[in-house]
Amino acid sequence: MDSLGTMVAKRVAFGLLTLIIISLLIFLGVELLPGDVAEAILGQSALPETVEAFRRELKLNLPPHIRYFTWLGDFFQGDFGTSLANGRPIADLIGWRFANTMFLATVAALIAVPVSIILGILAALYRNSLFDRIISMVTLSTISFPEFFVAYILIALLSVQLIIFPSISNINEQMSLLEKIHAIFLPCMTLTLVVVAHMMRQTRAAIINIMASPFIEMARLKGIKRMRIIVLHAFPNALSPVINVVAINLAYLVVGVVVVEVVFVYPGLGQLLVDSVSKRDIPVVQASGLIFASVYIGLNLLADVLSIISNPRLRNPR
Amino acid sequence: MAFFKLLRQSPLSARIGLAMILINIAAAIFVPVIAPYSETEIVGDIWLTASKDHLLGTDHLGRDMFTRLLYGARNTIAIAFITTLLSFLVGTICGFFAATLGGWTDLTLSRIIDILMAFPTLIFALMVLSVTGTSIIALIFVIALLDSTRVYRLSRAVAMDIEVMEFVEAAKLRGERIWWLMRHEILPNAMPPLVAEFGLRFCFIFLFIAALSFLGLGIQPPTADWGGMVRENAGAITFGIFTALWPAGAIAFLTVGVNLIVDWFLHIASGLKD
What we know:
The complex is a heterodimer of chains A (318) and B (274).
Chain A: H1 4-32, H2 37-42, H3 48-57, H4 64-76, H5 90-125, H6 130-144, H7 147-161, H8 177-183, H9 185-211, H10 214-221, H11 226-263, H12 269-279, H13 282-310, H14 312-315
Helix pairs in contact in A: 1-13, 5-6, 5-9, 5-11, 6-9, 7-9, 7-11, 9-11, 10-11, 11-12, 11-13, 12-13
Chain B: H1 2-8, H2 12-29, H3 31-34, H4 65-101, H5 103-117, H6 121-132, H7 136-163, H8 166-174, H9 178-214, H10 226-233, H11 245-270
């Protein structure tokens, strides 16, 4: 049997290993695919000398393993290379956009997490009531809708019919926090609606699972008051699955931000990634892809570590 | 017939879901007959409002929206369906192999899949598409391959349970080969959970392709496709022209339909009575 520290360390090590392999994949993906990147970007009609010069600029003439370690080493030092499209350092392009993306995701998370946990618990406690049925109908449809459908309905209602919020969320550093929040209200709403649906359904399932276990029935048969059962018996056991649900959905949120950013022309990392993919600006795609992947893997890692800590049963597997 | 008997016992929600899917399939098959115009024909001014000639108005180039929506059903559903099939083909074969062979094969495959699943699908697809360029073939293969990791997980778990049954043991002792085992012993018994999963994966892939097309990286114009149509017409929303909501609504309509059926299927599979 492992101690808590060993288990967490093992999980962290696996997370780091995943990250290294992902970085290798991101790098090799470009390498292994048919055709040469330089040729693909310049087109069929490019002169051989131009292609050769471009290959040298991309450092494609060096052996792959050397390029990989240089790329990774530079990446960890904050040097992401230069963009092919405009020749600017990628770090300048990414830095403030990443901050914007995290701002949007954080505000959405601050609203979504408490709302979905409270709704999930209420729906589980009043299972099969009218409230539960309405909530589950609404969340089932929100899950089925594409994010941009939710986004455009919100725009149509709150930005075109009632002119309350802007349909283009442009923020800059001169704005106060309140102005920023007003500007990102609609993208934030969209993300919240989509994430709440997922998180609430999973929370509800986790609580129902616990309420059906024998020790809760025992407590009920002993005549303990409902409120006391929930707070002292169910809650500590529900903590682990709920923390897990929250962290997994936050990871989902960070990725889901891409489509929403495009809808609202929000100056974030997702927008940059999509633009770079259509421009085939591969160094930018690699750098922003690796950042998204690190955040995603980091949050999933956090989910696992927190559930190891909050659930003693995982530490003592039978 | 067993199917009709099952249908008669189905709840209202599942029947509504089935009707929603049938409408879409009918639209996809009979487009050339129903559609008043051709797929890329420019028939009038841009962004006309709905009228007798143009049931849903016209789009950003003056093409008939109703016609485009019908052709969109054909293209979008067909591509999503092919992708889901491919994903299941790869996922179930690998999953069954891992479960029946066990040991080293299982360990290697499962570790690779674990790592692929730790990577957000959308980001992965974007990275690959940035290199391969956006062709329909690349799109289908990339998404099918990424999605087959989820299918692998499920089919491996299901096959693990079946693999330990006596009849598989008997077949093994008879000296049957692994392909025969997978095809005749495991597959028929793994069908119910796989069918429910097929619906879920179809929804996911369908939404995923719609999102990619919406980002301009999926199915390319002038092919009518719902995600791309939203993108093309979205700019007009701020002027109070809600044409873009039609294809977006169509996507939602189909996924709600499939989800209603899947919910019912999962309910049957879980063996609950209420």
